[in-house]
Amino acid sequence: MQKRVIFPNKILPYALLAPQIAITVLFFFLPAGQAIWQSLLMQDAFGLRVEFVWFENFARILKDPNYLAAIKTTVVFSSAVTVLAMAPALLLALMADRQIRAADTFKTLIVWPYAVAPAVAAVLWLFMFHPSIGVVGQLLIQMGVKWNYALDGNQAMLLVILASAWKQVSYNFLFFLAGLQSIPKSILEAASIDGASARTRFWTVIFPLLSPTTFFLLVVNVVYAFFDTFGTIDALTKGGPGTSTVTLIYRVYVDGNNNLNFGASAAQSVILMAVVIALTAVQFRYIERKVHY
Amino acid sequence: MSTEAVGRTSTAGNWLAYAILTLGVVVFAFPIWMAFVGSTWDAATIGRGDLPLYPGDLFWENYAQAWSSGEGTRVRGTPVGVMMLNSLVMALAIALGKIAISILSAYAVVYFSFPGRMLAFWMIFVTLMLPVEVRIVPTYQVVVDLGLFDSYAGLIVPLIASATATLLFRQFFLTIPDELVEAAKIDGAGPLRFFWDVVLPLSRTNIAALFVILFIYGWNQYLWPMLITRSKGLETIVIGITKMIGTGDAQNDWNLIMATTILAMLPPVLVVVFMQRWFVKGLVDSEK
């Protein structure tokens, strides 16, 4: 991880590192430490006294039915977003991998939604699915669906899922396409000569060889659904109606910012940090293994 | 041709491929098309639920109004011009700042040997695991304590540390042949000279690739600017749109909101489309 040939300076490397280390300490370690410390404290109702309570905040949260509901919402939301963002991406990548004309144009036209901000994606979908002014919303009502995502929790969930998945397909598409293009053509030829049909080739050759990409994308998409969709949810539903679209990350924000319940919010932050660290660790272990084979 | 044998070029299959890809493109483009259509009609037409599927003739009026005043009959917005400038400052500062501090720290870790080198590397590395959303509330407190609330510095600096960029540069530096350093040393060039004359020019493509990814990251920030800014003069465009929408009332000035939405998407989308080669490289490299 280091060069054989290096410079002998004693002070310079510290000067080069200083800006990044300073920012990292100030805005990563200090807040993370504070979150861990605060998660062990509890304020009384008037905010006058602070008490050290060990893991009481965690115990309270994990018993809170609202928090458990948020966990369930997050699991449903993340699984749906992951599947809906990955399956169409794989299909499109398989099609774009064929030797067709205008493949590059198609690629560009599929890739650009990546650049749209999550909150802006939410606005686009809101404008289409608005029950009284949206073109799709009105269509649904004409077809006899009682469509109003502002009142119906399941519809709100569906809309948040669609808007979140829509934005993420392009990312998955690029990685699937890169994965497909790295599969040696000779293997596919061999399968073809052995008389394997397109379907058989996909399930017995392409899909297994694509599994490192698929697994990597699985982790990335779950992380995306957990954290990056805050903007989508806030712009579309603000967690409503009721609490039907409150995910874990949305709850941290609501508790810390609106309810000013710092102990509970900090404990939730710590739990989420643990989740991210676990996901990252899984990803790195896996990538390490991928390098070996 | 060998690929023909695998059936990649069968005609029926290709028609299917075209059909599916076209469908995909339409599904991707439809929400944007409707936003564009909405931005070319008047608010009353949209409010009645009479928005057609084709553009109207108020393109210039709506965009000019959104750009210069941002105010309709219902919406009291910030002029889009101001918000675009804020977003641009934020995105550029985050992208360039991240690149600058990461390239320096990666250079230190790779080309020098000093006590605490591994500690520094790991300190940077673990930050990979803490996205801004997770540490939002405690970071907010730190920024308020430092007196950076509602300022450009508060908006930008906390988002500048980047493990991803540091790792990427480190990876790249390790592939630069040692002979170059030896030659530079023989020529009497010091570390800073070597950095400026050799390393920096060699890193050009990596910098471009990272720039595209980080510019989009910065432009699209939502939660952080929402928490850390209060004054209208600092509002970014992504925040501005959601404020204009409010509760999503049908009688909003949707024409102005949609014009703002289109303008908000334009810079990052143009960056992706015109820098596509670097964009794909940056995306794939930064996830390795």
Short recap of the structure:
The complex is a heterodimer of chains A (293) and B (288). Chain A is mainly α and 293 residues long.
Structure, explained:
The complex is a heterodimer of chains A (293) and B (288). Chain A is an all-alpha fold and 293 residues long. Chain A has one domain (65-292): Orthogonal Bundle (MetI-like fold). Helices cover 73% and strands 2% of the residues of chain A. In chain A, strands 1-2 form a two-stranded antiparallel ribbon. In chain A, helix 1 crosses helix 13 (262-292), helix 2 (56-63) packs across helix 13 (262-292) and helix 8 packs antiparallel against helix 9. Chain A is globular and about 75 Å long. The model of chain A has no long low-confidence stretch (mean pLDDT 85). In chain B, helix 14 runs antiparallel to helix 15. Chain B has one domain: MetI-like (MetI-like fold). In chain B, 69% of the residues lie in helices and 0% in strands. Chains A and B meet through helix 1, helix 3, helix 4, helix 5 and helix 7 of A and helix 1, helix 2, helix 5, helix 6 and helix 7 of B.
Please describe the structure with a list of short key phrases separated by commas or semicolons.
heterodimer; A: 293 residues; mainly alpha; MetI-like fold; two-stranded antiparallel sheet; 73% helix; B: 288 residues
Q: Classify the secondary structure makeup of chain A into a structural class.
A: mainly alpha
Spell out the helices and strands of chain B N to C: HHHHHHHHHHHHHHHH
Instruction: Please state the CA-atom Rg of chain B, rounded to the nearest Å.
Output: 24 Å
| Shape designation of chain A | globular
By CATH's scheme, which homologous superfamily of chain A applies?
MetI-like
Could you tell me which chain pair has the largest interface and how many residues each side has? A-B, 106 and 113 residues
Pairing-aware structural class of the strands and helices of chain B?
A: mainly alpha
